[in-house]
Amino acid sequence: MAFLSKLKAGDFNVKLQVKSQSNHSDNLYGEIVVSNSSYQNVKQVWGIINVTSLRNMNEKFEGDKLQSYNEFYILIRYDAVLYESMKPDYILVDIESDETYKILAYTFDPRKEFIEFRTKLDRDGSIA
């Protein structure tokens, strides 16, 4: 990834909402159990969404519809609030298209310029 100083403000053209699960509990094994979870807004940010590779795209029929699944890299500017509060159950929601991205991994730039997320487009989940 290039230094953010080489990116222009207009490159960040997708408005995203960072959300966290508000209702969850742990089971006997320490696993997070989500039941009727609702999401609460953590932060609204601007980002860049890039597809990892068309080679990684998976397609399959679900019922009579062809569904495609792919991983995306989402880049946002560094944010101290997210740095302090980031949890594995956070999701990213594209405000314009209402698409939900499940966070698979995230990286904080040591220069404190950006946060990069590796995500999967979640077609099954509905956060209402």
Helix content: under 10%
Please describe the biggest sheet, giving its number of strands, its sense, and whether it closes into a barrel.
6 strands, antiparallel, barrel
- Average pLDDT figure: 79
Low-confidence stretches: none
Distance between the termini: 34 Å
Q: Which strand-content bin applies to the residues?
A: over 45%
Helix-strand string: EEEEEEEHEEE
Overall 3D shape: globular
- Output the structural class: mainly beta
Separate helix tally: 1
Query: If you compute it from the alpha carbons, what radius of gyration comes out, rounded to the nearest whole angstrom?
Result: 16 Å
Record the strand order, biggest sheet.
Answer: 1-4-7-10-9-8
Give the number of DSSP strands. 10
